[in-house]
Amino acid sequence: MANSNKNYYQILGIKKDSSEADIKKAYRKLAREHHPDMVDESDKTAAEKRFKDINEAYQVLSDPQKKKMYDQFGYVSSSAAGARGGGPFGQGAPGGGAWGPFTYSYSNAGGASNTGDFDPFDIFEDFFGFRGFSGRRAPKKGKNLYYELHIAFKDAVFGLEKTVNVDSGKVTVKIPAGVHNGTEIRYAGKGMAGPQGVPPGDLFLSIRVKLPDQYRRVGNTLGTTINVDMVQAALGDTVEVWAVNLKSKDGLGKVKVKIPAGTQHGAQIRLRGKGMPIMNSDRRGDVIVQVFVKVPKGLSKKQKEILKDYLKTIK
């Protein structure tokens, strides 16, 4: 019976109504991050426990029968828990306990007998270049490498070619213009060399982009704010805001924005084609400017009288 004290949705970091694809995606990400062979020696004990919890959660939530029982009763019965077991691992995967998708049955020829399109040993192939625990399978390729690369905003605007030092040596990589924070780029054959002529693994870079403080980014659209006083908002004005400028060295430049007369606090103005480049395209995203209207303080006696006279006209 699955542990009724564990919140499997919380373990995988997903919502109860998550799709099968979302469940699979969350599992693959966490399995890579917490695999015991991918952490420092001092963290292995904690990683092993976490890895078992992740796989146990995936074993339940990826199976419609088990998921339904878990959603209704908070646990999975022994009979249902064995529904996908069997094969050389069954419920007794290495280290004991339920190891989630590693309870699939494999034939001597290595063919998977599970019914979905997800091969659980893809995770091991990603890490080590071979599939599963069996020593009978020769590596398909060398070990894949996973790194984070932090780049400046201008590098995300213009793109970048950079030489990085990784475990496989010095590698020159190209980062496309318009790259997003969190984008993962695969560089085939740039991982560790494989044994005995086996092709090398791949290099995966997760890109981290530092945005200027005045921006928030959603897709290829940048969001920013401007402050105007109530007179500007009432009568209209032209102000300057920051936007992407492909002719400047840092990727930024000021553009003029017309504030229409009668603009209300919180109004948004869209500057089309002034945002981030769209990857593998000659198009650009937009900039959305949100207007904050400031109420003046410390008015003079004359200014107060003018406002009082105005107030009389609208009553």
Shape: flat
Query: Which percent bin holds the helix content?
Result: 25-40%
Please indicate the count of domains: 3
User: What's the total helix number?
Assistant: 9
* Fourth CATH level, the homologous superfamily of the largest domain: DnaJ domain
Strand order of the largest sheet: 6-7-11-10
Task: Give a verbal description of the structure.
With 315 residues, the chain is α+β, with helices and mostly antiparallel strands. It folds into three domains: 8-128, DnaJ domain (Helix Hairpins), CATH 1.10.287.110; 145-209, HSP40/DNAj peptide-binding domain; 216-314, Urease metallochaperone UreE, N-terminal domain (HSP40/DNAj peptide-binding domain, Sandwich). Helices cover 27% and strands 23% of the residues. It is built from nine helices and eleven strands. The chain has helices at 8-12, 20-34, 44-61, 64-73, 78-81, 122-128, 153-158, 230-235, 301-314; strands at 145-151, 160-166, 169-175, 184-187, 203-209, 216-218, 221-229, 237-244, 252-259, 268-271, 287-294. The strands form four sheets. The protein has a four-stranded mixed beta sheet with strand order 6-7-11-10. The protein has a three-stranded mixed beta sheet with strand order 1-5-4. It has a two-stranded antiparallel ribbon with strand order 2-3. A hairpin with a 2-residue loop joins strand 2 and strand 3 (169-175). Helix 2 packs antiparallel against helix 3. Mean pLDDT is 79; it is low at 81-121 and 130-136.
